[in-house]
Amino acid sequence: MELKGANTKWFTENKSDIYFTSTINKGIHQLIQYLDHCDTYQSKFRDEHKLLDFKKPKAILMAGRRTEFVNNPRKKAIKKTWDSLLGNRLEIVTFDRFADQLRSRLRDFSNDRKQKKEKMWYPFDR
Q: Is 62 helix (H, G, I), strand (E, B) or coil?
């Protein structure tokens, strides 16, 4: 996982083009190097470090906020294309998306705990 700032912009644009900022490009490059290292040494990770499920790790670049995409169909289209081509191996997410997922998982965890507590058997009256 590579973290950039929540205020990091994903894109820069001129009159006709939109492209990733240098910060995002550097983050992508760093993650490609991590993935290459993992691919090169995956048997070592499995054999020597006993990480038996280590096969094709996923890299995540977290940067920026979703407001950059609001009312900008070109930026949304670039993100959608990235996700469909490379998202299974190198995903780029906003801090907002991470926060949404974290809240959802915490809510699920809390609900699971409540359900387990309700199902618990108590040998004595409470």
A: strand
Q: What is the pLDDT of residues 5-28, one digit of tens each?
A: 999 999 998 888 999 999 999 999
For the chain, the domains span: 2-111
β-partners of residue 93 are 62
Contacts of 57 (CB under 8 A, 6+ apart): 35, 38
> What is the number of alpha carbons within 13 Å of residue 21 lying toward its C-beta?
14
In whole angstroms, what is the distance from residue 101 CA to residue 96 CA? 9
Q: Which long-range contacts (CB under 8 A, 24 or more apart) does 25-30 make?
A: 27/2, 27/61, 27/63, 28/61, 28/90, 28/92, 30/2
Terminal Cα distance for the chain, rounded: 46
Report yes or no on whether pTM surpasses 0.70: yes
